[in-house]
Amino acid sequence: xxxxxxxxxxxxxxxxxxxxxxxxxxxxxxxxxxxxxxxxxxxxxxxxxxxxxxxxxxxxxxxxxxxxxxxxxxxxxxxxxxxxxxxxxxxxxxxxxxxxxxxxxxxxxxxxxxxxxxxxxxxxxxxxxxxxxxxxxxxxxxxxxxxxxxxxxxxxxxxxxxxxxxxxxxxxxxxxxxxxxxxxxxxxxx
Length: 190
Fold this sequence. Notes:
By secondary structure, the protein is an all-alpha fold. The chain has one domain. About 60% of the residues lie in helices and about 0% in strands. It has eight helices and no strands. It has helices at about 15-20, 25-50, 60-65, 65-70, 75-90, 95-125, 145-170, 170-175. α2 packs antiparallel against α7 (about 145-170) and α5 (about 75-90) runs antiparallel to α6 (about 95-125). The radius of gyration is 20 Å and the shape is elongated. Keywords: Membrane, Transmembrane, Transmembrane helix.
């Protein structure tokens, strides 16, 4: 039996549908991707700071089975691009205060994406920034890569969480302007 509420392989999901009818499931899917990404970074930090592994060996959970993958700039750039695409694609579903926080997240992720683009260009060409022995991002000239990416993920995630909370708990004015079903039901004052 086919669920009529789900798009079939013959239907095309439009941006309008993504930010109306499909906004909530898309937001939940995106949240799962972000949580999985955080789990990888936290596992890597645990391996370095608790288990005492050398940084090149600490690759998170994926790195235990696929060390070549976590050393690939393509994977890191791909994830930064996926984040940017999701943030842009889901943007129109946000209104009011949540939109401002979502836009902040989008701007921060755009910079993070730029840093990964810089890294993948260096890895592809072999021409490293300021003669460094490995691909190096701009801020990585000051902060080591593991710590920098924990920081980047933190500064991107915090406004994203604020945006989602404000989106799910809108003011009455914001609720009136919403075209998705993400908001929790309004409670009546007793």
